[in-house]
């Protein structure tokens, strides 16, 4: 999977693919090169998940700040 392709994945897709990568690594039986390639793929997928979660966190914080401003409780 290319870097650009992993960037386009939604959170759930990236998470599901990351789970598959972990299962393959845990199953063993791979060569060192195969294991390293899977590990790198997993790292990219984890970063995609982290970006999605950070974006969601920012949206939630902005929404909460907006509600606090509207109700006057933000002081």
Automatic annotation (TrEMBL):
GO CC term (a single one): exodeoxyribonuclease VII complex
Classification via Gene3D superfamilies: Exonuclease VII, small subunit
Keywords: Cytoplasm, Exonuclease, Hydrolase, Nuclease
GO MF entries: exodeoxyribonuclease VII activity
Enzyme Commission number(s): 3.1.11.6
Protein location: Cytoplasm
Catalytic activities: Exonucleolytic cleavage in either 5'- to 3'- or 3'- to 5'-direction to yield nucleoside 5'-phosphates
Subunit structure: Heterooligomer composed of large and small subunits.
Name the record gives this protein: Exodeoxyribonuclease 7 small subunit
Name of the gene this protein is made from: xseB
